[in-house]
Design brief:
By secondary structure, the chain is mainly α. It has two domains: 87 residues, Four Helix Bundle (Hemerythrin (Met), subunit A), CATH 1.20.120.1200; 41 residues. 77% of the residues lie in helices and 0% in strands. It is built from seven helices and no strands. The N and C termini lie far apart (62 Å). The mean pLDDT is 83.
């Protein structure tokens, strides 16, 4: 049952990514990109990479997509703009994608993939990452947080309008 759900999510990710690439409406592309990011996070969850899935949601969905949506909504001209693609760009892209697909298929079929005798049970990665960050790498974590805080203060200072 979980394999069927995995393949359904995979198909939805591919379809939404194709809509991102081929949609002529920018709003449709952004919302399809949202579906693609959420689907990729779901695939990460199936692979027991829960920390990567949460990071995917927080950074891409919570940050970048919200920025894109606000940018589109605040500029009225972009909301109705159509994306123009020439037939040369489309055909060149199809040739490149086809070549990469053929190379991937040849590589995948040329490998001998070992089959696991039993299903491996992976532990949660979040606990291990937390233990390492606040244990062995506490000083590096604090230095990185101070560096990011300094960058944030510097960006706010540069972006502040002089009155």
């Amino acid at each position: 049952m979980s394999e069927v759900i995995f393949w359904v999510i995979w198909v939805l990710v591919v379809i939404s990514a194709m809509i991102v690439a081929y949609s002529k409406n920018l709003i449709y592309s952004v919302f399809s990109l949202l579906a693609t990011f959420v689907g990729v996070a779901a695939i990460y969850i199936f692979l027991n990479a829960d920390f990567i899935a949460v990071t995917q949601i927080v950074i891409y969905v919570g940050g970048i997509l919200v920025l894109l949506i606000f940018g589109i909504m605040l500029t009225n001209r972009i909301a109705v703009a159509k994306i123009n693609q020439s037939s040369f760009q489309t055909s060149l892209g199809m040739v490149v994608v086809g070549a990469v697909f053929v190379i991937l298929v040849i590589t995948i079929l040329g490998q001998s993939w070992p089959v696991l005798a039993e299903s491996m049970d992976f532990d949660s990665t979040v606990g291990k990452i937390g233990t390492l960050l606040f244990g062995d790498y506490l000083i590096l974590f604090e230095v990185a947080s101070i560096l990011l805080l300094g960058a944030l203060i510097g960006a706010a200072t540069l972006a502040r309008k002089e009155l």
